[in-house]
Automatic annotation (TrEMBL):
<dbReference type="Pfam" id="PF01656">
    <property type="entry name" value="CbiA"/>
</dbReference>
<dbReference type="InterPro" id="IPR002586">
    <property type="entry name" value="CobQ/CobB/MinD/ParA_Nub-bd_dom"/>
</dbReference>
<protein>
    <submittedName>
        <fullName>Cellulose biosynthesis protein BcsQ</fullName>
    </submittedName>
</protein>
<feature type="domain" description="CobQ/CobB/MinD/ParA nucleotide binding">
    <location>
        <begin position="10"/>
        <end position="220"/>
    </location>
</feature>
<dbReference type="InterPro" id="IPR050678">
    <property type="entry name" value="DNA_Partitioning_ATPase"/>
</dbReference>
<dbReference type="InterPro" id="IPR027417">
    <property type="entry name" value="P-loop_NTPase"/>
</dbReference>
Length: 255
């Protein structure tokens, strides 16, 4: 893959915990790096959890203990002829400078850097970090508190930071996550109308609710979903409509 001189900076961001930002960071990073041929790096600034750093440690242990996954990983890395993408740990206030230094010193050209950022505006440096992104994707669920916090924060970014021009942000996109088919369709219609009324971008793709988003790999599993070392199984992607999301995501960022 040819890369641009400046990699894309992308964050899955939310002001509400538990909506999937770390999961989507991992899913997209692994798909782009291991299956689509791009060179990816991830910066974990979600202090103090640093869940992606912990996830990488768990994933490595699971691959080493599961013979099927070990064979999958060996075949994958032999075929793509590159290492696992790096996950680097920094605080939000230092992350843009650290990312730029990483780009300048990397011996391979980087196409995309994903940032896992803290979910609160009270974190030092968080607004500056978000303003340094090229694209922000915000998962939303049909929950009043999630919607209120996400809409207020997205409006802040779009109407204040982006309009001032002191930002690298090209666009911010909301998308529905954990969509349950049993929920009332009019509820989503009301929320969709509100989002459009506020002039915010809403992706067409909707991610179906799945236990896979909250589940680590079983001991003897032969497929993976959320992993920092292997891309998600294609059948699992289709089951929750993540394949459609990935296609729309790639069109937005124009990679």
């Amino acid at each position: 893959m040819n890369t641009k001189n400046q990699p894309l900076f992308i964050a899955f961001s939310s002001q509400k915990g538990g909506v999937g930002k770390s999961t989507f960071t991992t899913l997209l990073a692994s798909l782009l790096h291991y299956r689509m041929g791009y060179n990816v790096a991830v910066f974990d600034a979600d202090f103090p959890q640093h869940s992606l750093m912990k996830m990488k440690t768990r994933d490595l242990a699971m691959v080493m203990e599961n013979q099927h996954l070990k064979k999958m990983a060996y075949k994958q890395f032999s075929t793509i002829n590159k290492k696992a993408y790096p996950i680097l740990q920094y605080k939000a206030e230092n992350i843009l400078g650290a990312a730029q230094k990483f780009i300048e010193t990397s011996y391979i050209p980087i196409d995309v850097i994903f940032f896992d950022l803290p979910g609160t505006v009270n974190t030092p440096g968080i607004l500056k970090s978000l303003a340094g992104m090229h694209y922000i994707f915000s998962p939303i669920t049909a929950d009043r508190l999630v919607m209120e916090s996400t809409l207020v924060f997205t409006q802040l970014l779009q109407d204040v930071i982006m309009k001032k021009g002191e930002t690298s942000l090209k666009s911010i996109h909301l998308f529905w996550n954990q969509v349950d088919g049993r929920e009332s369709t009019p509820l989503y219609t009301i929320y969709n109308d509100l989002i459009h009324h506020l002039g915010l971008n809403l992706m067409e793709s909707q991610i179906k609710n799945s236990t896979r988003f909250r589940k680590e790999g079983e001991e003897n599993t032969k497929t993976v979903f959320r992993s920092t070392l292997l891309p998600a199984d294609e059948s699992l992607l289709r089951a929750c409509r993540l394949d459609l999301f990935v296609n729309e995501f790639l069109k937005i960022i124009q990679l």
